[in-house]
Amino acid sequence: MRSLRFISAEVLVSHPSVAVEGLGSVAYNLYPLLFKASYLREQAEVTRAVLGCWPLEEFRLDVLLGPSTDHPEDLRDRACKTCLEACVQGLADHVLQGRSCRLQRADLTGIRDVQVQRCPCGKALGRWGRTELLARICCQLQAETCAVRRPIEVLVDLFVTEGNFEMVVQALKPAGLAPLQMRCPSFRADSLSPGQLLQVLGLARPGELRKLEVVHNVRLHAGHVQQLLAQVGFPHLTSLTLPTKAFDTPFPCVPTSEREDCLLASIARELSSMTRLVELSVSFSTLTGKIQTLLGPLRTPLRTLDLANCALNHEDMTFLADCIHAAHLEVLDLSGHNLLHLYPSTFLKLLRQAAQTLRVLTLEECGITDSCVGMMILGLSSCHQLQELKFLGNPLSACALKRLFSALCELPELRCIEFPVPKECYPEGAAYPQDELAMSTFDQQKYAVIAEELRGVLLRAMREDIQTSTPLFGGFDPEVHETSNELGAFLLQAFKVALDNLSRALKQAE
């Protein structure tokens, strides 16, 4: 329930001219209240003015938008374009008006990007857009001649691509004392060359970085990864995501086993120096027989581990089941491995080791058939902390799914199940794993009937708290959605270069 103070703040901000004019007589401890009220009501003029006059030493967006005794609603999932632009413009006003001696740090992190915006305008400013906006304002202020008594540190989760690279570099590398100084606790990179990645990370104070995501269209190989970790250094990093094929041997080197092992061991040594690293994602890298080399030297047990489609063998699975990481894992992705057919006992041992901590388990396209359901139930039965189970792309019948759902009802913390389209819904003899066309060609009426029956299993067990879905093409990814046009152009250019290279090679062969 909203407090009388918050209701009064809402009334005031609904008259922007009155609110802005009266800010000078408002007590300092009421500014957070006015900010949340103006953000809620999307009164951008008031939001900007509140930031321009902010009288406190610190501004923390996640705290101000989070639940409070005055207003219990959580607004952190409102990446409202209108309000966020007003926030950054308000920071610029604060500097230009010479008030920077008051505000010392502005933390703009903590916003959750969601698919549907609940703000009145319905328009979102995603992570890439927030990066571009702040970088542009920083560059504009660098060109101003205003005197800077004390710069304001601005914390932001950076998302850098080819489209905003130059502006971000300029913002991070001012010619003189910058009024706004960007700091990034987390950094995401896409569609950059390895050289660009090294350049921008070197400017982004890597010693302060907590989370690094290098994804999709950054073409790294093992040599680049070793160079990145050794030369830049990330002493406080807690989370690292590397792109597809990041552990491949550098071209045109001849991929010998000795060379690959030496390079991987060097990377592992660099990772071991990151004593706070607890999340590691290296999906779609070929790591057959190399997991112990990579993970063995790590000093801190991992809590998140993504090894999807890494071509693991029995040796790798044996190490995972016995290593120190197993008993600490909270999030595990082993998609793309035929676990229950090839390594059943080892996989069950891994689940037993992780049972006390495991919250999210992903087993997509693991060749799980009806004959594996009993073993899968046995393995999951002790995972009482499990909250999410995702096993899309497995050839399971409706009968097997019902049996599995009945068992999953016994897991007290389970809240989300992503299950595959039952194989009865596809033409007889359909092959697995499926391509996108085959995956989307199924009997939707039959699927709807079976999905309703599965929902009935949960309802009869009084587990209506469990949400079920079959997201064939993955869930909503705000970063990919926001930069889809740029990344599409990047892929087309990469395809053109590949065709040109092929054409030259054919001509040389002639």
Feature tags:
four-stranded parallel beta sheet, alpha/beta, 15 strands
Describe the structure.
This protein is an alpha/beta fold and 510 residues long. The chain has helices at residues 4-13, 16-21, 31-40, 44-52, 61-65, 81-96, 127-143, 165-172, 194-203, 222-232, 257-272, 291-295, 314-322, 339-342, 344-354, 373-380, 398-408, 436-439, 444-460, 478-482, 484-509; strands at 58-60, 105-107, 152-155, 158-160, 180-183, 186-189, 211-214, 239-241, 279-281, 304-306, 331-333, 360-362, 388-390, 416-418, 467-469. Strands 4-6-7-8-9-10-11-12-13-14-15 form an 11-stranded parallel sheet. A 4-stranded parallel sheet has the order 1-2-3-5. Strand 2, helix 7 and strand 3 form a beta-alpha-beta unit.
Widest sheet: strand order? Answer: 4-6-7-8-9-10-11-12-13-14-15
Strand content of the residues, in percent? 5-15%
Task: Provide a count of the helices.
Answer: 21
Any idea what the radius of gyration is? 26 Å
Terminal CA distance: 78 Å
- Spans of at least 5 consecutive residues whose pLDDT stays below 50 are none
Q: What does the average pLDDT come to?
A: 91
Largest sheet: 11 strands, parallel
- Label the overall shape: globular
Oligomer: single chain
In which range does the helix fraction lie?
40-55%
Extended strand count? 15
Secondary-structure class: alpha/beta
What is the element layout, followed by pairings?
Blueprint: H1 4-13, H2 16-21, H3 31-40, H4 44-52, E1 58-60, H5 61-65, H6 81-96, E2 105-107, H7 127-143, E3 152-155, E4 158-160, H8 165-172, E5 180-183, E6 186-189, H9 194-203, E7 211-214, H10 222-232, E8 239-241, H11 257-272, E9 279-281, H12 291-295, E10 304-306, H13 314-322, E11 331-333, H14 339-342, H15 344-354, E12 360-362, H16 373-380, E13 388-390, H17 398-408, E14 416-418, H18 436-439, H19 444-460, E15 467-469, H20 478-482, H21 484-509
Parallel strand pairs: 1-2, 2-3, 3-5, 4-6, 6-7, 7-8, 8-9, 9-10, 10-11, 11-12, 12-13, 13-14, 14-15
